[in-house]
Amino acid sequence: MILLNKQPVITEQFPNGETKVKDFDHLISADNLVQFTYQEDGDLIKLLFVKKRLDEAEVRCRLVINYMPYSRMDRKIEGDLFTLNYVSQFINSLAFDQVYVIEPHSAKTIQLLNNSEAIYPALDWLPQVMAELGFTDQDRIVFPDKGAAARYEGAGYANCCVFDKTRNPQTGRIENMILKQGNVPIGAKCIIVDDLCSAGGTFLGAAEILKEMGASEIYLLVTHCERRVLSGKLLNEGSPLEKIFTSTSMMNEVHPKIEYITINIEDYV
């Protein structure tokens, strides 16, 4: 989905699969903001068409990427293509005046994208969620790996816990997970904080360990959440996880264990 100045760009599809974009001349202004939500590869073609139309109007245009596609392929792995690099080159070729990426999966995204800036709404949501849950000094903020800890290291919260995990680079499966830093008092509430949830295996593993250590309630605060979480075990009855707090950057399905938080883009751009 693409929004131009907060209004949806209407697209249709021809029988042969080609994309038709309805002209949006009435939405164009001197300074434009395009909000891009990736759901499939065809959305990249829609972004191309929208930007070319704006180029014809000779107007300024900034881009907000709600979730950067291919951001997990952020390095060259033997046998696989470095696809984040190629998608970044494609976006660079569109020559936006400024690119904002909401919660990039790694710093590599910002390095590859021209005129880009990262936005981290989870840091703004965290105090709200802590207040909602009635956090005290005995409760804990939990980072599921070193990457998450580094991403939010400037958050300024004491009593954080950090897991260390070993993942097979070919299969993506987690082979080992241990609590590397911090402690969990008996009865503590825990909020696991990260950027992206897919099926949720990492968070389920962390939640099970936290529960064994004595945590009373465990929550997940994650900016991006894929639909795959609905078919995984993280939301099943009997899961140690109480609730997921997330945005609609990738999904908006209703579930009793999911609470959506709105990203007010005007607060960042």
From TrEMBL:
Keywords: ATP-binding, Glycosyltransferase, Kinase, Nucleotide-binding, Transferase. It comes from the Bacteria. It is an enzyme of class 2 (transferase). It catalyses: D-ribose 5-phosphate + ATP = 5-phospho-alpha-D-ribose 1-diphosphate + AMP + H(+). The keyword Thylakoid does not apply. Its EC number is 2.7.6.1. GO terms for molecular function: glycosyltransferase activity. The keyword Cytoplasm does not apply. InterPro entries: PRTase-like (IPR029057), PRTase_dom (IPR000836), Rib-P_diPkinase (IPR005946). This is ribose-phosphate diphosphokinase. It comes from Sphingobacterium tabacisoli. The lineage of its organism: Bacteria, Pseudomonadati, Bacteroidota, Sphingobacteriia, Sphingobacteriales.
